[in-house]
Amino acid sequence: MEKKILRGRAWVFGDDVDTDLIYHNKYLAETDPKKMPQYSFEYYPGKEHFAKEVKEGDFIVAGTNFGCGSSREHAVYCLKYAGIPVVLAESFSRIYYRNAINNGYPVLFVNGLSQAIKDGKIKDGDELEVDLEKGEIKDLTNGNSFHGDAVADLEMDIMKAGGLIEYLKEKAAGK
Amino acid sequence: MGKTMIEKIIRRAAGREVKVGERVWCDIDLSTARDFGGANCVLQFEEVTDKKGKVWNPDKVAFTFDLQAPSHSEKVSNNQKIIREFAKKQGIKKVFDVDWGIGQHVLLENGLVKPGDVILGTDSHMNLLGGVGAFATGVGNTDIVASWFEGTNWFRVPETMKVTVTGKFKKGVCMRDLLTHIVGDLGAAGMFFLATEFYGETIENSSLAERITLCSMVTEMSGKVGLIMPNGEVLDWLVGRAGDEVKERVKTLAADADAVYVKELEYNVDDLEPMTSCPDAPDNVKKVREVAGEHVDQVHIGSCSNGRFEDITAAFEVLKAGGFKVAPGMRAIITPATREVMLQCAKAGYIQKFLEAGVIFTNPTCALCTAEHYGALPSGDVGMSTTNRNFIGKVGKGSHTYLASPMTAMATAVRGKITDPRDILG
Fold first, then answer.
1. CB of B221 closer than 8 Å to CB of B315
2. Residue to test with chain B: of A15, A17, A25, A166, most B Cβ within 10 A
3. Of A150, A127, A157, which is closest to residue A140 (Cα–Cα)?
């Protein structure tokens, strides 16, 4: 969360993106998070090329209930270590949300994103500018803007610590 | 103002009054991991504690091996070994190795689950333990590792939905059909972040297996947990396994009569028909007869949702009515949830009959919830399964899956095409 204003390309997905589509069960035996990005979205029809073409700084843009399905944290690591600075979605499934926060990985609930995706108001390859602190998203390609929800206090504290483990260590050390 | 079950459960675990929407730290009664995710937990715990860490209470940590049991790949074999060695080092005795079966079911059968328990596991269907009133939830490895430090973790106190079910299932129709109907009705986000309490005569008279089926599918509506306080035979069974404290918990944790619900729904099952989740999403629901006659290459009966003795009995009855023979060319696989269930099947004489009919009857394991297990589907094939998810390619790239009840699955295996079980049962 060091850089306040981020710029990058959008990779756009729909509603209810299941964890098998983000990171397929075929690769669950992987234990090294840094090796997980090579499998990202391999089973997502039309996005099979994601892992090869994604660039550091690109954004994931999705509709409602992103990350529904399995508890696999692989589905967070595979995007985090691909260099995606933040996942933007109308909403996240609860386990995916926890897994992201617990890793200090920013996820933003963005109002109206699901409909905007359906209406073609935000598209694959659009250039986005994201102000993480203010929760403001501008689509520089077509001029639309969106606004994210504030993160709850505890989650923000965990994020600031860098994740749940770091948060607990700080707490134990009396910081 | 009265309290819902989840509010009382979290109050007990937090040791203080709680409000809906609040984030609270709860004591964890059991923190578990499987062969999937388990090695990730162990390696992460060792890394963040410089291999010096001790889990807060070895008696409250358990490992279950179910996703690939027995392992058929070197990678998973090594992951399982990592877990075994960690358990030994930490003095963790509750290790249910590859011979036991599906984790939540094994924990339940071994008396490790009581109403009100807060249980974590690396399985998004942990929450099926809500079928006996436990707040069990699937989490990632970081949540597990964090809980091993001091036996606590954070939760948001969820809003609660109330679902009341009345009526009696007709022959050939069962709890799975109700669930499929509800998933179709509410959609993939229909219980988003919610706890759901189930009530009504249909629930009160239901078996443990039916309650497990019901609560397992809450995940497919993005719910936090489905909850049913044990009563009748289920209560007796649970007391037999987990002890007398169960009775006290049922009394103290039942929802108040004036508890506040964000939504109340009613379903009647009198006229319910066999239902199916069509490819490629659990909420793409139709009546079985609407898709009857569609070709299916493989049928699978099992999983944490429908792998209990009652489920396999229901399939057996359909096979019996169908003349104890599966259709030529059909690959029919039955996977009991646990060793205990498999023994029940053996004692009932089912296994010989299944084998003679051409069914593949396997050891207890999760089986077709992943493409990394026997029965993975080749591209273009269509399967029918009693598992809980059917996203495109889940059990093999380019394959498609229908989800249905054990009765519909077996009827389909007998006829070689999607079949309403009532056509065979009469």
1. no
2. A25
3. A127
Number of domains in chain B: 2
* CB within 8 Å of chain A, chain B residues 290-349: none
User: Over the stretch A83-134, which tens digit does the pLDDT of each residue have?
Assistant: 999 999 999 999 999 999 999 999 999 999 999 999 999 999 999 999 988 9
Do B332 and B255 lie in a common domain?
no
Going by the DSSP 8-state scheme, the letter that residue B51 receives in this structure is: T
Predicted ipTM of the assembly = 0.95
Beta strands in B189-302 (DSSP E): 195-199, 225-227, 263-268, 275-277, 285-287, 298-301
Both tokens of residue A87? 């996942």
The domain covering A5-150 belongs, at the CATH homologous superfamily level, to Aconitase, domain 4 (3.20.19.10)
Residues from chain A that touch B394, judged by Cβ atoms under 8 A, are 20, 25
User: Tokens representing B126?
Assistant: 């942990």
Does the pLDDT value for residue A3 go beyond 70?
no
Query: A32 is written with which tokens?
Result: 């090294």
Q: How far is residue A53's CA from residue A76's CA, in Å, rounded to a whole number?
A: 18
Dist CA B190 CA B222 (whole Å): 7
- Helices A94-102 and B141-150 pack at an angle, to 10 degrees, of 60
| B389–A94 C-beta distance less than 8 A | no
Last residue of a domain, one of B250, B267, B284: B267
pTM of this prediction?
0.96
Phi/psi-derived region of residue B133, left when phi > 0, alpha when psi is between -120 and 50, beta in every other case: left
Residue A101 Cα distances to A20, A152, B132, B208, angstroms? 20, 11, 30, 35
CA B330, CA B417: separation in Å to the nearest integer?
A: 9
Contacts of A110 (CB under 8 A, 6+ apart): A88, A89, A90, A135, A137, A146, A147, A148, A149
Shared domain for B284 and B338, answered yes or no, is: yes
Per-residue model confidence as pLDDT tens digits over A13-25: 999 999 999 999 9
Distance from CA of B247 to the nearest CA of A (A): 31
Helix (H) / strand (E) element for B172: namely none
Tokens matching residue B408: 């519909």
Nearest to B414 by CA among B335, B358, B353: B358
